[in-house]
């Protein structure tokens, strides 16, 4: 779990730099790295959240996605181009099995 905390501090710094540079692609990559670390290092994700993040990342125009909140059934937040929102919602609804 310490690996997540230390890595998250570094990711947060890089995320701030990406936002200042308006590099949303890089910011999104850091969101996914953060989710993966929460899942693998901090062990607070669950299959349903992992499935939602993976589905979101398959949609063109999505920059990044990660779990947020308390984990273990929390929710996800996704950064995407404004024009991709409706397509992302539909795709995720269609793809999400609710049985992961």
What is the percentage of strand-forming residues? 5-15%
Number of domains: 1
Return the structural class: alpha+beta
CATH architecture: 2-Layer Sandwich
Helical content class: 55-70%
Query: Helix segment count?
Result: 4
Largest sheet: 2 strands, antiparallel
CATH names the topology as Alpha-Beta Plaits
- Main sheet: strand order: 1-2
Number of strands: 2
Give the low-pLDDT segments. none
End-to-end span in angstroms?
24 Å
Domain GHMP kinase C-terminal: 15-97
InterPro entries: GHMP_kinase_C_dom, GHMP_kinase_C_sf
Keywords: ATP-binding, Carbohydrate metabolism, Kinase, Magnesium, Metal-binding, Nucleotide-binding, Transferase
GO molecular function: ATP binding; galactokinase activity; metal ion binding
